[in-house]
Amino acid sequence: MIERIEWDDSYLLDVQEIDLQHKKLILIANELYDVAVGDDSSYKVLMPKIIKKLSDYTVYHFSAEEAFMKRYGYADWNIHKIAHDNFVNEITSQIKKLITGSKDDVLNFYKYIVNWILTHIAKTDKIWASFVKGK
Ligand SMILES: [Fe+2]
What is the pTM of this model? Predict the structure, then answer.
């Protein structure tokens, strides 16, 4: 059984604009979790909508974060962007397979994205955030 993963304030970067977006990403991911463990009729209607919302918001958030890094003169923003782009490519290909997948496949997808996002925040976003805060 895949557990619901909750936002935890230890993931805050102390960069308000980006922290709010990270929290929202986890909220949308948890909407996906809730429909995947819920009843079949709402699952069928809501799953594709939430997947689209999640993928659109991820792309929006990454562009906002990249713009933020550039605005603050973080020189390695383009290296960081590669990690974002790879993740978007990966989830795009996983999403294509989910159309014919089961609820378990959706839960595995959920687990993958939440773990990726939280690890990325804790290890990679932390680096640009400490640069920005030191300015
Ligand atoms: Fe990032």
Answer: 0.95
Residue 44 falls within a domain, yes or no?
A: yes
pLDDT in tens, 51-93: 999 999 999 999 999 999 999 999 999 999 999 999 999 999 9
Q: Which residues touch 92 (CB under 8 Å, ≥6 apart)?
A: 55
Q: What is the pLDDT of residue 113?
A: 98
Domain-located, residue 9? no
Please determine, for residue 100, whether its predicted confidence score (pLDDT) is greater than 90. Answer: no
CATH number at residue 38: 1.20.120.50
* CA 115 – CA 50 distance, rounded (Å): 18
Total residues belonging to the chain: 135
Residues with CB under 5 A from ligand 1 (ion): 65, 125
Q: How far is the CA of 54 from the centre of ligand 1 (A)?
A: 16
Distance from Cα 87 to the centre of ligand 1, integer Å: 10
